[in-house]
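Hello forum,

I keep getting stuck at the same step: I have a sequence, I want structure tokens, and every attempt I make locally crashes halfway through. Rather than fight my setup again tonight, could one of you with a working pipeline run this one for me? It's a single chain of 832 residues.
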Amino acid sequence: MAHKGKKPVKRRTAEEQPRRRERITPERYDPDYHEGLTTNQVMEHRLQGWRNLSVEAPSKTTKDIVRENTFTYFNLIFFVLAVLLIIVGSFRNLTFLPVIIGNTLIGIYQEIRAKNILDKMSMLNAPHAKVVRDGKVQQVASEDLVLDDIVIFSAGNQICADAIVSAGEVQVNESLLTGESDEITKRRGDQLMSGSFVISGKCHARLDKVGEDSYISKLTLEAKKMGEGEQSEMIRALDKLVKWVGIAIIPIGIILVVQSFFFNHDPFQSSVTSMVAAVIGMIPEGLYLLATVALAVSAMRLAKQQVLLHDMKSIETLARVNVLCVDKTGTITENTMAVHEAVETLDYSSGKEKEKYPPLDQMIGDFAAAMTADNITMEALKAYFTENTGKKAVSMTSFSSAVKYSSVTFEDGAYVLGAPEMVLRDDYILYEAEIEQYAKKGYRVLVFGKYEGEIDGKKLTEKVVPLGYVTLANPIRDKAKETFEYFAEQDVQIKVISGDNPMTVSEVAAQAGIAGAEHYVDASTLKTDEQVARAMEKYTVFGRVTPNQKRQFVHALQKAGNTVAMTGDGVNDVLALKDADCSIAMASGSEAATQAAQVVLLESDFSCMPSVVLEGRRVVNNIQRSASLFLVKNIFSLLLSILSAVFMISYPLEPSQVSLISMFTIGIPGFFLALEPNKTRIKGHFMTNVLLKALPAGLTDVFAVGALVVCGHVFGLPSEDIATAATMLLAIVGFMILYKICQPMNSVRLAVFSGCIVGMIFCGVFLNQLFAMSGMSTICILLFVMFSFAAESFFRYLSILVEDVRLLVKRIRGDISKEELIHKLEGEELDR
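Reply #2:
Ran it on my machine without issues. Output:
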């Protein structure tokens, strides 16, 4: 199977691999953080194998793909069956071989195409790092870093190797490693663990352990010992089906040969050919290929839209999504910010305190000059407030989403800038009316003030004297309105989750056309899990949300039975991205977010999300629909083989006849239908949905062919006549379920349906020798006609019965109400 949930990474050369295994004990360096390693020192470590190479499995080579698609268990079974047919001289029944060879070649071709495209895109999105070498700052791929390199880490970066802080200060989140979401301050001499990510601040750090020696690599290797990554429900279901079929076919095949040759005294050749026909019918050879090709084609289609999949199972998850959680900044709005204006607070502008301070713009200019531009807010402040008094900062604290403020301490005291509720705290009510007049217009409002205490990077405890407000704005994305209108039409709920003022977020959401944007809540008021659960049902917009709350909201939605997709671009989104059913990141956002997400929008264009969701629905719906066709043959062959063994009846079909039916009622229509548009959201379990569609036709086949064989023996009809009649009968039932699956019929489906009928007739008439289609006696024709009409009625009423049972089960589970059940049953009655 292609792409088993592995993230494609750069393929290492053959020369690099042995160096990694046979590394020489290195000479360690402790370079000055301003200078870094020299070129010669970097080359020395690289030649000795001390590079930061990933321990994750590299993407498959072409050789791997060819081998995995060729040397499969079922291909081995087909090879053995072909050898048996050659031994008994039944060359005509080798017609299944071209189909198997074609399946293998198509699978190899599509998987190689998908690999090449995804590898190129993965290289574009591969993690990079700023490194100091020879006194110059340069950007290199994370895998090109070496031991003792001096790397510059800032907000949004993921720590790529274990390191020791040489200078500066950062706040990091180690939740992906430890499960604890607290922000930890790292200063000179402290250790940074690979896999954690920087929340705020900036530092220079010396790499202490790289590649397989790093902490994250050890965790990855430990995880590999536990087995492969989790697969999607669809792939898990197919794996189970293939496993059980693979176990069953060998004993059933042996039983059929023994029963036919020793008990029914059939010739050895016919015993072998009937066994081969039964086994071929039980093998879902095209179903696995269909899923592989459909997923590979989907990945390529998304790649052309500049969408990178880190995880192939996300395609199926996208098809099931019914709640989409979005952040305001970077998703609804552009990932840029601009200062609108700076406004003095009313009490400051009219009071005597104003005489003690320079103009507000210059004070904020001093503040901005002392800070590093580690987020879009600070970039906007630096661009707008260019004038300052030249005051020198004593210390500074970068913005943290946990405490929602940043600070600079000058000789005359500490100044803070942050969210009004977090900065003013108990005094917020005094300024609420002032602040809300800006929030109602969609502006983000920050309070700038002087702190009457010492800053320690934790929540403020002393009084803040507010000096002014800074209002900022994000431009709404051009196609945001059309995008959210699409999701409303598709019954996908939108939940806007942001750290900003809820009133501001509500206004922005309303401008973007999000339904229910007027229903908003301040997340800081939600203290218990019960309050969160109720709020997720009632509100659309959530403001003042902490990173840990974002994760809590995702969990609450999942507990309510929703399939949740989360979009984000910042480090404060990482926790929620990791826990969502499907995570989507903007490439223009933080590195930590893009590496944590399953889907990355390389052009950071949220308007492409409808097409991404549509692609997921198309591929899974169509695989599900086509899988029903494949399972009809498998159910029929399995049950008829068991009945043949129990009642001592020779299996009535030949392999060439099974190949003919499979080609025109399963294979060809299945692949065409798998490429059709399909917008319906996936509901229920994959295998349950497939079996419920396939079961009526499979049972109808067993009933009709079994009855035909019994009557044929009663009337003493030749086995060739019975086999031909059974083939035609199976074709009729096959076209009945194909017609049902093609509903509602359109021009493409009509063309496929009609073409398959014409192809079946052509092969039966003009290639009758190849497919063992002989003439039938009058009695056989009459039996065929009679059982054809009986099969139609049996199939129709069995389909109705299965659907009624499915609805009753859903009612018992509480998935539908009593009124919905009655309405659906009445609708079916009218259809009848």
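The two ends are 42 Å apart (CA to CA). If your local run keeps crashing, start a new thread with the error log.
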